[in-house]
């Protein structure tokens, strides 16, 4: 069992989105999102998970998508946290899939 | 001027605001969201080229009318978006917006907090690719995305067929619509559904469409497992003929009806009563939505009733609040709304039988299945804690011992299943297991924000 987290996109775009490109970083890698996207949709359109569970490290990708279950909180490089499903992307966001305490 | 505060900007909150405004007052409408409409009637996020009226189908007229009514008053009310109400204490609301805390008092409080999906665990349900049924719809309406390329819709809800129809319409591959309630139970519930034939026919039309398109539509299934290592690859089910069925997929939408968001109502002083039909703790209100002095509940957060009931009950609660404050005479409008809300909610009682919460299936879950996804607590962890000498049989004590329900979602997801596991393992009635108590903050906030006020 690898439990590494899938690199393949989980979300599939159904309808186009107009808007400016918004540059972010995830674990230090530059990624492009589009204005109006949620952090969750931006990340899951490019990969298969958002974060690792504090208990055991299994990958998680959110669940309720409406701000109730709190499964999609991701860390920022500065040690803050944001709820990915209800937070729109903003230029310069630096996100991390790892809990700060667990980072190398 | 009295402060009339409404929390939530779904159909109930939007309509409550419209009624208060129409009587010459300026309501304060507070919402966590950025797009009005709640979950069902939510507006797409800016820039999304989504044809909502087409997606809403037969409900497009209501969707457009509701938003047009709201747009007309939007600039005339005190509308506070992106604002979390995280506590209610001594008739004061504690708010948080962009990390800045504040408080707000009220003379009348109308809670229109809506609902989320009720979830029953299944082996593999914490895998990436498994989302709530409502979440599958939000992904589409709010973000224009499918939760996966090949999606299984599983649970027990009339919304399974609706969401599957929306996904198919925009080009997703729906691999199965699988409902745990047997077909015979649905037929038995028909008489109680007959007084709202339009809703019933709409549901049947969605199912008929799926069936004609070759989508397997199964009733009376048991979900066995969602397979995958680090993402979903298939779901296995036992069908009503006791055959094992496997459907390859990369996403699962899971939903067993809706569960009111009652946390703020409880903090505001509403009494919660166990409902045997829904097997949920629901806030007690009178026929107008009154839940205490100056406290009114409307929409799915008060009692599951769907969008039509939400619109009507929002208006009704606003009329009741205005009458109680002495700003309006209770009149024929109020009586008409009361009848309409009663009729629509009675229909949901029938739906709760046709799409039943799978109590026996939850009781039969293996010890290894994850029950609390926040704290990673298994069904077996709960049963073993209860089996100890003097082990707990009350749900809050089970929570204290196992941490099940203590995580960041505060039992929103695991609560109803934990209730069944505890009741089932102790051999007691659902209500006798007790009720998970809510605590502020109702959603996670930074400690600094709480300190700023206290």
UniProtKB/TrEMBL annotation, chain A:
Molecular-function annotations in GO: iron-sulfur cluster binding; oxidoreductase activity
Q: Does the keyword Oxidoreductase apply?
A: yes
Kindly name one Pfam family recorded for this protein: Fer2_4
Does the keyword Oxidoreductase feature in the UniProt annotation? yes
Q: What SUPFAM superfamilies does its record include?
A: 2Fe-2S ferredoxin-like
| UniProt superkingdom | Bacteria
From the Swiss-Prot or TrEMBL record, give the protein name. 2Fe-2S iron-sulfur cluster binding domain-containing protein
Q: Which source organism does the UniProt entry give?
A: Bosea lathyri
UniProtKB/TrEMBL annotation, chain B:
**Domain BFD-like [2Fe-2S]-binding: from-to ranges:** 371-423
Q: Which domain of life is it from?
A: Bacteria
Segments forming a coiled coil? none
Q: Give the Gene3D superfamilies listed for this entry.
A: BFD-like [2Fe-2S]-binding domain, FAD/NAD(P)-binding domain
Q: Which GO terms describe its molecular function?
A: oxidoreductase activity
Name-wise, this protein is: NADPH-dependent 2,4-dienoyl-CoA reductase, sulfur reductase
UniProt keywords (A-Z) are: Oxidoreductase
Q: Which organism is it from?
A: Bosea lathyri
Positions of the FAD/NAD(P)-binding domain: 3-313
The uppermost taxa in this organism's lineage are: Bacteria, Pseudomonadati, Pseudomonadota, Alphaproteobacteria, Hyphomicrobiales
